[in-house]
Structure formats: structure tokens, C-alpha cells
Amino acid sequence: MNRRPVALFAFLGLGYAFLYGPILSVIFYSFNENRLVTVWSGFSTKWYGELFRNERMIDAAITSLKIAAMSATGAVVLGTLAGYCLARMPSFWGRTLFAGLVSAPLVMPEVITGLASLLLFVGLEQMVGWPNGRGVDTITIAHITFTLSFVAVIVQARLKDMDQSIEEAAMDLGARPWQVFYLITLPLILPALVSGWLLAFTISLDDLVITSFVSGPGSSTLPMMIFSKVRLGVSPEINALATLIVGIVTTGILISGLLMFRQNREKERAAREAAGG
To answer: Where is the ABC transmembrane type-1 domain (predicted)?
Structure first.
């Protein structure tokens, strides 16, 4: 008997248990009747009811979703333009500097980014009177600043792998550059745009450090709310909230996997029909 696969599966099982064991414990204790999260006293769903009756938590969740959606949309627009310039304009004045500025948020510590954003907003407020304090607008701008880098990298990679002969053929047939981009390039890079939007949305929704620097009264996001509550001790409501988030993410992953599986099956079926025909 070969012991190598057994040891491999054992280490793999330990790794998965280390990663997902705490998540399963959070889900398990979200149904605990006791207020003490580590003391099981019976099955109950009352903490889910308490969660939905917590208006501050609901307002923070709505604010986070709103900021994440606006940040992801802005990051896709600016990141697509930046990625297109880097992929299709191999030489222009200041390209090296521009590429460095685009990729800088990827390696810059979030504390530095948050502090720089705060100083920028304070300086603008003193000079031009905008922004009037910190809130949703400043959080959104700060999130766009560092999430557009992720979108630019994804779009740039997709454009480099794309066959440019299709665009060249369209231009030879008389299409203008904006028509080529809108009718050919944009549909071909659409999966990259969707991936970039989802990644930017997730990063913005999850951010805590930068948001703490550029937020103000009345603009607390869900990560800030959770962090402030956890500092005083984990409550069963936090477990219930984490369980809902895990459920939503898992459902999205399952739906995405199912759609990809069906799409691959349709491609295989079309390939077999083409080969048989």
C-alpha cells in the first residue's frame, strides 16, 4: 500500500480544517441560545431576529453595499482606461511613471494609503471647502483610488492575450476607433470587466483600514461596525451576520460554478456536433 497519497490527503484535510473549521464553528454557534458564544445551551434562531431588528447594523450594511457598488463601478471605468493605455500604447511620454502610479496601490500598505487620503481631503477642505467633512463620498473616492489598480491589471492582461487582428480588420473595413472599441474590444473584454467589478466590489466591501481614516459620523460601514462590536466581545448577532454572509457567498459560488459547468457542456456538445457534421 502506497502511504504517500494517504499522508497527502491527511495534510490536505488538516489544512482545510485549519481554514474552514473556525468558519463552521461560527455558523454552529450562530444558532446558540446562550448569549455566551462559546457556551452551548440549546438550538435557537433568535439571534437572527435580533440581527434584523438592529437598525444600526442594517444601516451599516446598506452603506457598505452602496459604497462598494459605486467604488466598483468607478474603478471599472478608470481601471479599464488605464489598462487599455498600458496594453495598447507601448510607448508614450511618462509611461513608466504612469504604470508605477497605477500599480502602486497594489504594494502600498493600506495604512499609508488611508493616511494620504485623509491628508488630501483635509487639505482640499481647507483650500476649496470640499469635501465638507468625511463621509460616503470620501470613502468612495478612496476606495476607487486603490481598487482601480486591480481592475487595470485584469484588463491589461486580457487585452494582451486578445488577438488584435480582429480590431485591425474592423479598422481596415472603415470602422472608427471608438466603434472598434465599443463593438469589438468591449464585448471581448467583458468577462474581465465583470471579474474586475466583482473583485473591486469585494475589496471595497471588506475594507476596514482605509475606511477608518476617511470616514466620519454617520458613515460607518459594516466592517467598522463589526470591528467595534468585536472589540467589546463577540456577540451572537455577529455570528448570525457572518453566517448570512457565508451563505450568500457560497450561493453565489455555486451558481457561478453551475453556469460555468453548463457553458462548458454546451461548448463540448457544439464541438462534437461540428466534428460529427
So the answer is: 61-259
